[in-house]
Amino acid sequence: MSGNDKDLEVQRARIDAIDRQIQELVNERAGCAQTIAGIKREQQADLPDAANYYRPEREAQVLRAIRERQAGGPVAEEDMLRLFREIMSTCLALEKPLNIAYLGPAGTFTQAAALKHFGNAVTCTDLPTIDEVFREVVAGAANYGVVPVENSTEGMVNHTLDCFMGSNSLVICGEVELRIHHHLLIKPGTKPDSISRIYSHQQSFAQCRQWLDSHWPRVERVSVNSNADAARRMQTEWHAAAIAGDLAAEQYGLEKLAEKIEDRPDNTTRFLVIGRDAVPPSGDDKTSIIVSVRNKPGALHELLEPFRRAGISMTRLETRPSPSGTWAYVFFIDFEGHQQDEHVQTMLAEIDALSTGVKNLGSYPRAVI
Hints:
Layout: H1 3-43, H2 49-53, H3 56-69, H4 77-93, E1 99-103, H5 109-118, E2 123-127, H6 130-138, E3 144-151, E4 155-156, H7 158-166, E5 171-179, E6 183-186, E7 197-200, H8 202-207, H9 209-215, E8 220-223, H10 227-233, E9 240-244, H11 246-252, E10 255-258, E11 268-275, E12 285-292, H12 299-310, E13 314-321, E14 329-336, H13 342-354, E15 357-365
Helix pairs in contact: 1-4, 3-4, 12-13
């Protein structure tokens, strides 16, 4: 045996030993998670099962610590976070898998966001509308829901904002930021020169407009309810293509005729995780509120002034028509900090005095992965 062969055998033996250690430690971690779940059930027997052992703020803290420790390691930071995300998901599912409702059908970017946030060891339920996701969580049929709220190219998802205005029992428990890559998908065997129409969601068409105008200017564009619905149609159509993502391509067995066709390489969609229980501080949090103001000159200026005085950074401000009256408006505001922070409480009290109503949508950990 040559010197190189001996070196290979040594390194392979080290890998085998490390694999055994990893396996033992994962099982040990799972045992600790089960013990903690049992303690919490005894302490909080009146809470729903998921609330006994799933803690969004704790998971965010663990993932942040992993990210900090990984600085300079050979494994990419995001890859390490995904590995631990799956370990945590698997340990959690030993007690009882979480049921996550999301805007379907299967293969949507919302499903990809749900799996990114919760890992693959959960039960996912696809629903046809955002309203139904809210109702499923309110009814307790799902532990949490995942809905889109804004895209970096096309702006806010107004339907989600309207659902928050009509909901009184749900809070935001987390956020997910997902880089959106669109692909032009076809059924295996479809000839590119036979394509006469392209299916996709209207927002995806908008996010790929320049690429489509350049490469497929004369092909009919047909808007459907979701990218996954577009991909699903390819199973029965030989002269069409769909714009969708990796999950939809895998789900429906499609080939990529062109990859990453979005006009902006930083195209990102933000999703919100909704649930029934408030989330304690994690150390790096955001808060979302809805504010109704009197229709008078300077109303918006008055609303923003308490943020300046408190030194609180506002990360999002959106306006929607108020359901209570014509030409009346409400403001959706995201800002840094947790509602339990003293300076946030002071600022919220000032805003409450200036407005006709403040609705706290919840405080939640800032997206980690």
